[in-house]
């Protein structure tokens, strides 16, 4: 046990933990983006609100959520520790020594990580905390209103979508006479309001730019740290890290606030 503890208290151990938590967070980004694409459906937020309820109430997902929060904290804390230790151990007075080429994202992972942490805090305050506020207070705060949707099960078309007056509601889905009724918190409305503010959209786009550069270096670095890289598969890892995680994922997230600001 002491050797195990000593290993994970070492610089290499901290890098291993950062690599594992980082890859776990990369997996979360795929799931999160896939669900958030429901925002582009022209259904008055029905699909997105159903997705939000599922992600916050399905027990296995809730367990994974706690692991997610822990991973964010551990990844952040260990990043700070490693950055401080590296600066303390950095040699001084060898200006003439040749330096190996280092990418801009690699040199600025601390700055990029700081922007992302601020983004996560604001994002969770404005969406996650508001969505869960009723659970924290034990009563209906109406911070996020409820919406009722009616869908014709024969045609699959939405018949109506109306805001419900303040009251004590819970998520519910029931069918009567071939008409499906869904009552859910209207998180979609909260998103629409937030993304109508230009400064909020600008901050989101900047943060997602930081995410792009952070993943550009971080994804590939994680595989190097874990030793999961081989000459044969290195181009594939670099391709996935560059085009999927550093380009497609950030662009997918950035498209949402931009779309709502101009067309929502």
Automatic annotation (TrEMBL):
InterPro entries: Cytochrome_b-558, SQR/QFR_C/D
Keywords, in A-Z order: Membrane, Transmembrane, Transmembrane helix
Keyword RNA-binding among record annotations: no
Entry protein name: Succinate dehydrogenase cytochrome b subunit
Top-level lineage group: Bacteria
NCBIfam families on file: sdhC_b558_fam
Transmembrane segments: 12-33, 63-84, 105-124, 198-216, 236-262
């Amino acid at each position: 046990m002491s050797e195990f503890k000593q290993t994970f208290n070492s610089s290499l151990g901290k890098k291993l933990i950062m690599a594992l938590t980082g890859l776990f967070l990369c997996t979360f980004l795929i799931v999160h983006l896939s669900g958030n694409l429901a925002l582009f459906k022209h259904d008055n937020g029905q699909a997105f609100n159903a997705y939000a309820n599922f992600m916050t109430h399905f027990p296995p997902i809730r367990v994974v959520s706690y692991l997610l929060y822990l991973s964010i904290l551990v990844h952040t804390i260990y990043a700070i520790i490693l950055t401080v230790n590296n600066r303390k151990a950095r040699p001084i007075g060898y200006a003439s020594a040749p330096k190996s080429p280092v990418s801009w994202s690699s040199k600025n992972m601390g700055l990029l990580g700081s922007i992302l942490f601020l983004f996560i805090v604001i994002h969770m305050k404005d969406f996650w905390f508001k969505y869960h506020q009723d659970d924290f207070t034990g009563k209906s705060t109406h911070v996020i209103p409820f919406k009722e949707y009616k869908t014709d099960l024969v045609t699959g078309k939405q018949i109506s979508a109306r805001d419900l007056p303040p009251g004590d509601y819970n998520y519910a889905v029931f069918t009567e006479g071939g008409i499906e009724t869904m009552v859910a918190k209207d998180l979609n409305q909260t998103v629409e309001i937030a993304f109508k503010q230009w400064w909020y959209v600008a901050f989101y786009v900047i943060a997602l730019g930081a995410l792009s550069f952070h993943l550009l270096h971080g994804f590939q670095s994680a595989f190097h740290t874990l030793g999961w890289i081989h000459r044969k598969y290195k181009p594939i890892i670099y391709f996935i890290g560059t085009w999927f995680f550093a380009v497609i994922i950030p662009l997918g997230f950035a498209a949402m606030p931009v779309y709502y600001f101009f067309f929502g």
